[in-house]
Amino acid sequence: MNTPAGSHSSAAPLDRIRVVLSRPSHPGNIGAAARAMKTMGLSRLVLVNPKCFPDPQAVARAADADDILAQALVCGSLDEALAGAIHVYALSARHRNLGPSALPARAAATEIVAHAGEAEVALLFGNETAGLSNAEVQRCQRTVFIPANPDYSSLNLASAVQLLCYELRLAAFDGQPPVVTRAVAFASPLAPHQDVERFYQHLERVMVSSGFLDPQRPRRLLAKLRRLFGRAELEGDEINILRGLLDAVERKLARQGAITERAENSGPK
Fold it and tell me: Is the peptide bond before 268 cis (omega within 30 degrees of 0)?
């Protein structure tokens, strides 16, 4: 639809990787593959003789990845789709006696990303029903397989694209892709030493005033509590919560003390 398959140039390895779907028969799988690509940071989709494309089902399954569909290149032959690619990997669940050597997806992803740092790479996926033909596989330098359950290794086309793109993203970021979240951060900075010490002083005061701690026989209670809260690595917000709780206990103790004192003062003289 846009530029020739071999004309893309980028410094980012994932931008040098194109996903080629050969003879896809269901437009929904094309859309789902586009969505799978976008979630993992790949954007270059190439279609070889798709049965139905463009198609509303593809757009619906793409969700918000319809930009990937809009930029997709539709080719009339596999050679056109692979033009400019230096390294071509065939995705196939079938191990073939004749053809390129096979790698599991995770090991292949590391190799693919390394190649994509310098040159164009194509990942070739076959038709939903028949997969890749021997002639298509022989156009590739490597075969990649997903180590699925050997008793049932059949994967949906879009699922296979998702798994490969996930492995590529992990490899591109050395196993630690950046995490972006819109959630409000739950943690707060760790409490400074002086605030922690004030908390311990407050805690001891409340334990004594409540009768929980006998200052004449403290045993190892304070030391054990220090060890307990030390393991927790208290945050500033947590210190505030705990001291608020202690304040509430002190206020209640003070009210109870005032009530008792009034009752004693109002008794018979």
Answer: no
